[in-house]
Structure formats: structure tokens, C-alpha cells
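Encoded backbone
================
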Amino acid sequence: MDKRKITKKEFAAAVALCLVLLIIVTVCILWQEDEEIEVHTEESYSWFDTYSVIRDYSGRSRAEFDTNFNKISARFDYYHKLFDIYNEYEDVVSLCEVNRLAKDGPVTVSPELIEFIEYAKDIYALTGGEVNIAMGAVLSIWHKYREEGVSVPSEALLSEAAEHCDITKIKIDKENHTVEFLDDKMSLDVGAIAKGYATECVADMLVADGISGYVLDIGGNIRAVGTKANGDSWRAGVKNPDMSGEPYIYYFDIADSSAVTSGNYERYYTVSGVNYHHIIDKDTLMPADHFSSVTVLTEDSALADSLSTALFNMTMEEGEALISTLDDVFVIWVTSDGSIITSENQKI
């Protein structure tokens, strides 16, 4: 597969194109207001414990946007509860409740959760196990140590937990809408896929309602629904992992598509001068160290979210092999020395 490094001259030219920058997280829309389009915006800190912003470039009225935002907010509220592994709710059977009860027998869940787990199993197969929602036993250890911030879990502790990450031991009964764990030490963690999956579900809702011209930015997971009212795309940028340098290191246009980045520089803790980030390699059970960030552009936000994690955990050769089997996927790898490598240029 073709790949190329971005020259300093190309980088300088790209920077000159961007007049207004809003730094959020790893990838974001560079908001440039259009004088002929009235843009409506709402923000939220309620979904997936992150900052989100919904923007409407459709040219419709504020009243219409408010109606649409209420529907968008209600759906994200639902998926936030559904995929929450830390809290239980009266009106939704969350993954927290599933993790607590499924080891003791079948738990009745919503059809949406059944569909999600089936999708996650497909992603597991597609990525060769690099994205595994059944890795909760390992990831919960890393979460605990990251919260404490003073030490690193032992190899023995992680290896023992890894014995309880077999995704085939999630038993689904579609007819009765139940989930059961066949390993009593298993738990689910959907952080590698939940935001993207929920975002795509909301985008599908908007499309079904005939709504276009929206950008859903859910914690840096970008999903553009259609184009702006004037037919233009949005300009977006990949954040520079070197926080002391230029704010963005790669730029692209996006319309009716998604962009998601996985990186090692925003969620980490430091022990004895070494940073330990949150993306854990299934083979080493340690934070992956192949790249500083990986950004995936493709239509489906759930796939983009999943692939960004999978590719972050793979070598370049492994990642290129995976991407070669997929259509309309564009990847931007940023290496530890700051080099930028892109996959074969495909139309997104």
C-alpha cells in the first residue's frame, strides 16, 4: 500500500489554510463561520464523561434546531446510560448491571444492547481480537492503577486477569433478549467502541428524519451528517501529540463521514518518569507503543472508533494489511518521532 511522509513545506501550507482553530481533543472540526449560513450550537458535558458539541449548518431555524437537539440529546443520554460500566439506572439496564449479574445467570437487556454486543463480536473478528469488549478484567486493573497514579500493575496480576477475557463466553439469547457470562470473573468494557457506536446511531436517526448539515463532535469523535447548506464540507485537523508544537499536524475536509483518533498523550499517568496511557495491547497487556496517534476517516463512526484503537495496537505492517481488506478507509499514523504516514489516498 502507498504511503508518504508530509514535508515541512506541505505542513506550513496546511497551517496557512486554517484561520480559526478550536482545540478540543485529538481530532476536531476547525470552525470557520459562514456568513451566508446561520449556525446553531449546543454543548454538553453529560455524555460519556467528555465534552461534546452539536452544530447545525443546515440553514434551518433555531426552533427547528432546538427540536432536533432535544432528540439528539435524548438518544445520547440513553446510550450513555446503556454503556455505563460504573453506574446503574432505574430506567435502563446498563453494562454496570450486566457486569454485576450476568455471571450468575441470564440478564434481560434491551434489543439495542443485544445488537451492540453482536456488533462488538464482529469487530473482534475483523480486528483479530485487537478490539475486545470482554477485556474488562484487565482494563479495570489499569483503570484502578491509573486512578491511584502511584504504581504499575504486576505482570502476574494482569496475566491472571487475561484468563477471563474470552469473548466467546458472552452468551446471547436473541429471542429472550438476555446476556449471560460463562466465566464468573468476566466483565465488559466498551470504551474502545461505545462513543463511535452511539454517534453512528444518532447520525442514522438524523438521516432517517431527512436532516443534514449537522456535525456531531462527541469527545473528539467527529461525525458529519451530509454537508453544509451551501454544499461545502468542513475543515478538520488532527491534534499534534507534541503539545509544545503547532496545535494541528494534518488537515482534511470531511462531509457525510467520520473521523476518530486514538492517541497516547491525553489519558495517562506517570510512574518513575514513564507515561502509561489507557490503550492496552492484548498481547503484552501493557500500553501499546507503536504510535503517538492513529486517526481513521471512514463513513461509519462505530467502525472508525474501533479501527483507530485496533490500528493503534498494531504494527504498521499489520495495520496496512487490515486496511487493505476494507473499502473507503483513510488512515493517518503519527509515529513517536512525529513523522506522519498516511494510507493510500482514497475518496472519503
Q: What stands out?
A: The chain has two domains: 8-82+211-342, 95-181. The domain at 95-181 is CATH 1.10.3980.10 (T-fold). Residues 81 and 90 are 10 Å apart (CA to CA). The longest helix spans residues 62-82.
